[in-house]
């Protein structure tokens, strides 16, 4: 598989909508250690909204599909994570503009754009126990894969591996934002819940790409 078409993007988002609600309890329990425990519900409701909106996105460009799906997520599940996730998808979608396909070479820039959007919206920086701490290592992994001539399925798998490794490192970080920021040093030892959700999504992406 060399490039992602609009149909591939829709198939991936449909997989997310089907599978991510199954992690509701896991994300709720993890988030309860860092905040108010609503992440599982947010992800479940938001992903349903993404799934429900896909029929209206048939025939659109990949960038539009990503951006509108982010908006649908946040509209249905307005929250801190909803706003951050919507910003990430909209920023990634804007980065690729009106292209009909997404190549492996496009992915690092899309993720960096997502990270920049998230940072601008919430004021977060790397090392503050946010999704930036998994997004940026994934972008670097994808750059290496693209430069090394990797194919898309292998690169997606490496991106997931980088995400999991980066997620583990968030355990040693002290939260600086949201309710987790109230805990300060007590947040150390717990992986970032939002980053956990992102890694689960990236695992779905890797499987979606491998199966296309």
Q: What does this 3D model show about the protein?
A:
With 212 residues, this protein is an all-alpha fold. It has helices at 6-19, 24-32, 39-53, 62-76, 80-96, 106-122, 132-147, 152-169, 180-183, 193-211, and strands at 3-5, 101-103. The chain contains 10 helices and 2 strands. The chain is 68% helix and 3% strand. The N and C termini lie close together (7 Å). The protein is globular. It has a single domain, classed as Alpha Horseshoe (Serine Threonine Protein Phosphatase 5, Tetratricopeptide repeat). Helix 1 packs antiparallel against helix 3 (39-53) and helix 1 (6-19) crosses helix 10 (193-211). It has a two-stranded antiparallel ribbon.
Secondary structure elements and their pairing?
Elements: E1 3-5, H1 6-19, H2 24-32, H3 39-53, H4 62-76, H5 80-96, E2 101-103, H6 106-122, H7 132-147, H8 152-169, H9 180-183, H10 193-211
Antiparallel strand pairs: 1-2
Helix pairs in contact: 1-3, 1-4, 1-10, 2-3, 3-4, 4-5, 5-6, 6-7, 7-8, 8-10
